[in-house]
Amino acid sequence: MITLQHYLVLSGLLFAIGLAGILTRRNILFLLLSIELMFNAANLLFVAYARMWQDVGGQVMVLFIITVAAAEVTVGLAIAILMSRQLRSLNADEAHALKW
Amino acid sequence: MAETIAFYLIAAVALGAALTVIMSRQPVYSVLCLLVTMFALAILFMMLGAYVVAALQILLYAGAVLVLFLFVLMLLNLSPEQLRRVGSFRWRWLGMLMAGLLGGQFARLLSRPAPALWTSGNPPPSGTVAELGRALFTTYLLPFELTSFLMLAAIIGAVTLARGLRKSD
After folding, report:
1. Distance (Å) from the C-alpha of residue A59 to the closest C-alpha of chain B?
2. What's the structural domain count of chain B?
């Protein structure tokens, strides 16, 4: 019997994997992909709780999260392209100057 | 019984693909593994009765966001030595340890028994287009309108960044 806890634990593990990606990788593309993983973990949590409370609100919230993730990824990838053009590198540690 | 097998199978696929996303050296493999994770999650959404969300997960994430990632990867055209130069964080073991601790705590806390609202006879909320649309345009009308502002801000941000690129080249 699959219960709410199964989905919650899966969501927590996915979130932890995304966090591990952010903490270990330095390539800005991998950072963005890890953020997407964490967004998806949150989505699973919302849908599981929507199922538990018999409320469609959690599913509506997932739509908002998907929109926010799309906006975030658009700007983030634009910044990644700018970084690779101007710094000749995708290393997030090398982008330490706010302006020059 | 079938639900249990399906859940464990799909959860294993999602977790394995997620691990490959963060372990892989090649960004293209990472993006494709993230695609696998999103499809697995879409199946889980369907098992939870969220049909519209599952469809949008595939349409928006797989169809738009990951294709955008692939476009950028092709545009950047990274060479292998360029990828190797970035490398990983020096204290990566510390990051892995911290994330492992967090994951263990999540698993421990979230697996505690919840109030017994979830029974097999409990019908899932109807995640149909009609139900979702009604909630979206009545209860959640203000956040819905605010997302359009967010999209506008993202478009302006992306265009501004692209214009700065042209000037500097």
Report:
1. 7
2. 1
b/e per residue, B138-168, with b = 16+ CB within 10 A?
eebeeebeebeebeeebeeebeebeeeeeee
Residue B112 lies in a domain: no
Of A15, A63, A70, the CB nearest to B65: A70
Domains of chain A, first to last = 4-87 (1.10.287.3510)
| Nearest-by-Cβ selection for A62 from B38, B53, B169 | B53
Closest by CA position to B107, among listed A47, A92, A5, A50: A5
Give the ipTM: 0.90
Number of residue pairs across A and B with CB atoms under 8 Å? Answer: 254
The CATH number of whichever domain residue B67 belongs to comes to 1.20.120.1200
Q: 10-residue block means of pLDDT along chain B (169 residues)?
A: 89 94 88 94 90 91 89 83 67 84 85 63 71 89 93 90 63
Q: Look at residue B151 and tell me if it is in a domain.
A: no
